[in-house]
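Holo prediction. Input below; ligand is glyoxylic acid.
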Amino acid sequence: MTRKFRVFATCDIGESLELLRQRGYEVEVYPQPEAPPKKLILEKVKSGIDGLITTLRDPIDAEVFEAGKGTLKVVAQIAVGFDNINRADANRYKVPFTHTADVLTEATAEFAFFLMGALARKMWTAEHLTRENKWGYWHPYLPFLGDEVTGKTVAIVGTGRIGLAMIKKCAGFDMNMLCYDPAYQNHEYVKAIQELKDLQYDRGISREKTWIKYVTLDEALTSADFVSVHVPLLREGESTTPTYHLFNERTLRMMKPTAFLVNTSRGPVLDEAALAKALREKWIAGAALDVYEKEPLPADSPLRDPPIEDRCRLLPHFASAARITRLSTDPNRGMAGRCVQGLIDVLESNYGGDFTKMPYVVNKEAFTR
Ligand code: GLV
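Structure of the complex:
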């Protein structure tokens, strides 16, 4: 039996925790559905745990690393995004942290795509008609029409894993694509998608020739019918290409008045006050959000204003909320499985104990010589 490690999980991540227990680990789980208070996390870390399992709701910073000095060996985050973890602090204390990239890529991209469709075809408003018994007739254009997604132009802002998966989904709907990424471009992928598009046209599968290309942010925003956001949250000072409030009054005003915005990345990438104004004043046609500057979305958020209700879809950080994606114990399929595997890799010194070789460790730079 492996040496016993002590682990505290800030929330229940299902059966994967059982797998740790079967390996001889002592696992304690915060039993409430809400995030634990920071004080409790500090207490647990101070008590000498080896591993901490976190969610995007838990602020992990110098205070936490200081509390775990000499004992805390790994922070395993169940999410791809890790803006709640202060990377510079983790590096200073030399604590590796892991995340669960890849296994939620397709689920998040399909969710962004579904939001785009639900928004454009006004599905929420249309269902309300039916439910509220206001569906009085079938008519060619009354009481309203939606917009097609097929054949339209979408701007993909951020072409990391999830942005590329979104491109693949949009390609299936014969969309033209304007790609933008301030930090990472994948020209090979874009070229392959163009070849796929050309083949579909040549073989009569697509009726029109469509295209995909990298452009500037300005060009993407001014020309697109849909804008889908897939960048990580990077604040000023964290990167040479910060994304905090990338969508603000200036950039929202660049969009066409007929265009729709979808954000499944991180809330603070978008200035919500500016978006509420853009919707009220009809600079853009609509928006669908899954993430917010403050989560859960406060009761007094201007995004809830009734006058913009039919053009503003609000989802509760749900993009990766699919059964297998969230809970599969298989590290190649589920976030829970991958989270636990990341923790095991560090604690059990897999890969010869070399953090730089461990696939789920994020802050490898702290351990390269
Ligand atoms: C969810 O938002 C994630 O980053 O995994």
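DSSP finds 13 helices and twelve strands in the chain. That is the main takeaway for now.
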